[in-house]
Amino acid sequence: MQKHVAAIHDISGMGKCSLTVALPILSAAGIRTSIMPTAVLSTHTGGFTGFTYRDLTDDLLAFAAHWKSLHVHFDALYSGFLGSFAQLGIVSEIFDMLRADDTLVMVDPVMADNGKLYSVYTPDFPKGMAGLCAKAGLIVPNMTEAAFLLGEPYREGPYDRAYVERLLHALVALGAPRVVLTGIWFGDGQLGAASYAKHAGSIAYAFNEKIEGYYHGTGDVFGSALLAGLMRGLPLPSATQLAVDFTAGSIRRTKAAGTDVRFGVDFEEELPLLQTELEMGGTGSN
Which Pfam families match (predicted)? Predict the structure, then answer.
């Protein structure tokens, strides 16, 4: 039976991120995807000025209540960028409304990068996000977000395994039993992620080529590909490697094409390879 995901993110009309990334990636993976917009923007907020912003906080509970009245089953609830502090509590309530016993709740705590909290958020936002993460079955922070969630100073890479693994254990202690931590590199020309499942007690690493530069929207590309792998039955380490490879391949295409990085990465032409990897069980590497 086809899996069904509810994606709770913003819509940026231009600049590939959030729902304009999650919907095509999950759909290409054969996953039925329903979307709940948290805000609507003319562009994303990275590298652009003068963008429009429509906050949809007041619409979210009514949106979810209508879905609940339809008696649909969600295999996963996937939250990303939230438009206000108030949405943290609302999305937590939505999780309770829509989740079933077998629903995976995946929270991407989108709020910071490169050592800094996004300008749209106040200093108390990370503590609220940590509360939302406690409701999840899986969280997917980057290294900056991990530091903010844990109330620690941000540390620039390269990292060492002892530091990464201490972060993973501390993140699981927030409440989610599984964590995928992104933005890990050990100074060897590789960049990737580490996954940890508390019940298994084991940590797995997934790497691909480290490509210089900053590319907007790659966290959403990674998270969507990760969830696609999980919904197609891959174990967490394999789904993490799949997402690392898909993201790296999308970045390589973008760099080779000379695309303006403000507009996101060229993931669309990478989708057939994602589909092939899913059919093969996610064992390959780009």
Answer: Phos_pyr_kin (PF08543)
